[in-house]
Design brief:
The protein contains 13 helices and 20 strands. By secondary structure, the protein is α+β, with helices and mostly antiparallel strands. Among the domains are: about 45-155, SH3 type barrels, CATH 2.30.30; about 375-450, Winged helix-like DNA-binding domain superfamily/Winged helix DNA-binding domain (Arc Repressor Mutant, subunit A). The structure holds zinc ion. Zinc ion binds near residues 232, 235, 237, 252 and 254. Belongs to the MYST (SAS/MOZ) family. One of its GO terms (cellular component) is nucleus. It catalyses: L-lysyl-[protein] + acetyl-CoA = N(6)-acetyl-L-lysyl-[protein] + CoA + H(+).
């Protein structure tokens, strides 16, 4: 665990987060279109007639399966179907062409491929300028074959080999964070990317929202053929069909996450769910979260975790907006393992609220805490913002000298994190073998302004909680 991509769109700082937000939350018309395309890939086989490909695009005619060729711009021939690793331009949802690399290809159902000439395939592409979360299946006519680059990347091994990974291998890879490449040898990194390269579930329905997913999630094999999953927003059970969900909703008696409500302020509630007492819920939550976190660890052992689930409440129930998980016992003083704000609720300050909440729990425990490492780059950005606001607010009020130890005692932020934050802001001087904080009010104000707003505050008086103790 430890990836934090899901919260970062709130920062609005990172270009890719903004791009992702634009694609997933603020452009409903694009979402709808995307869904239709995905849906067609499956539905056409049973219902619709063949799509109207321009005749000029057709190659060898019906049923053609062999390699065909197309003329490239420079007179060269482009072999179809395209090889995995091919680079070219592809028309994205913004209508513009962007460079892509083909990650995978698959055959379309027979009625779609009547045309032959490479149209019997669709291609899973990675937009090289964008985050992996925007990878998607595209049809041949979205690809500009005139721009195919001559060199195909080294051939990626057959997918079948990667699917033979043992559970142990898979776990080993997942437990090693990939963004910190230093911990992962090249072979393992390739294995990880090979195994998770293609998004399996394209959309989910959760409560009032239909949400486009960002990443692969290892749902059980019987869901392999699903493009869309339907989640009960309360118990997080997932189903293949809408009718199954409707039937489920008539008998599901939950109206909030299972577990104890430990915080209520206005319409916001936080529930503490013990992974041991609510194993299925914990696992469902992990499957769901992985759809939005690239390198989240797949913990099969949810027993060891507590899940803090944040909800917006109304007369229909408590609707999950995000969560963080926390190990019951952490020797490394981790106070947070995974954190996610669901896309429809991003950029409302919930990610910052969740981070602040994790530190309020640490204060109640009388411990310092730190998020599980390594953090993704975007996760670090969220935390840096939080640490900056909290620490500089205190420095502004304390005109006199204050030590890092004192700051740590007041905030439950680990001393290392305080030191690295202040160092990154150039507020630490090293004098006579000692770190000294220099806190010019003007400099502090400038940094505070750059760190942005703090989002929703945690009202500590509304937190009713005692630290976890193993029963018996
Ligand atoms: Zn349910």
């Amino acid at each position: 665990m430890g990836s934090l991509e899901g919260t970062v769109a709130e920062n609005g700082g990172a270009a890719e987060a903004a791009a992702a937000a634009a694609a997933t939350t603020t452009a409903p018309s694009c979402n709808g279109k995307q869904l239709e395309e995905n849906g067609n890939a499956v539905d056409m086989a049973q219902t619709d007639g063949p799509p109207a490909f321009p005749a000029a695009d057709c190659g060898d005619g019906p049923g053609a399966t062999g390699v065909t060729t197309r003329k490239g711009r420079f007179g060269g021939l482009v072999a179809l179907p395209l090889e995995v690793g091919t680079r070219m331009l592809c028309r994205w949802r913004d209508g513009k062409f962007h460079p892509v690399k083909v990650i995978e290809r698959r055959k379309l159902p027979p009625t779609v491929s009547f045309c032959g000439g490479g149209h019997e395939y669709e291609y899973y592409v990675h937009y090289t300028e964008f985050n992996r979360r925007l990878d998607e299946w595209v049809k041949l006519d979205q690809l500009d074959l005139d721009t195919v680059e001559a060199d195909v990347d080294e051939k990626v091994e057959d997918k079948a080999t990667s699917l033979k990974m043992t559970r142990h291998q898979k776990r080993k890879i997942d437990e090693t964070h990939v963004e910190g490449h230093e911990e992962l040898d090249a072979a393992s990194l390739r294995e990880h990317e090979e195994f998770t390269k293609v998004k399996n579930i394209a959309t989910i329905e959760l409560g009032r929202y239909e949400i486009e997913t960002w990443y692969f999630s290892p749902f059980p094999p019987e869901y392999n053929d699903c493009v869309k999953l339907f989640f009960c927003e309360f118990c997080l059970n997932f189903m293949k069909r809408k009718e199954q969900l409707q039937r489920h909703m008539r008998k599901c008696d939950l109206k909030h996450p299972p577990g104890d409500e430990i915080y209520r302020c206005g319409t916001l509630s936080m529930f503490e769910v013990d992974g041991k007492k609510n194993k299925v819920y914990g696992q469902n939550l992990c499957y769901l979260a992985k759809l939005f976190l690239d390198h989240k660890t797949l913990y099969y052992d949810v027993d060891l975790f507590l899940f803090y689930v944040l909800c917006e409440c109304d007369d229909r129930g408590c609707h999950m907006v995000g969560y963080f998980s926390k190990e019951k016992h952490s020797e490394e003083s981790y106070n947070l393992a995974c954190i996610l704000t669901l896309p429809p609720y991003q950029r409302k300050g919930y990610g910052k609220f969740l981070i602040a909440f994790s530190y309020e729990l640490s204060k109640k425990e009388g411990k310092v805490g730190t998020p599980e490492r390594p953090l993704s780059d975007l996760g670090l950005l969220s935390y840096r913002g939080y640490w900056t606001r909290v620490l500089l607010d205190i420095l502004k009020k304390h005109k006199s000298n204050i030590s890092i130890k004192e700051l740590s005692d007041m905030t439950a932020i680990k001393a290392d994190d305080i030191l690295s934050t202040l160092q990154s802001l150039d507020l630490i001087q090293y004098r006579k073998g000692q770190h000294a904080i220099c806190a010019d009010p003007k400099v502090l104000d400038r940094h505070l302004k750059a760190a942005g707003r703090g989002g929703l505050d945690v009202d500590v008086s509304k937190l009713i909680w005692t630290p976890f103790k193993e029963q018996g």
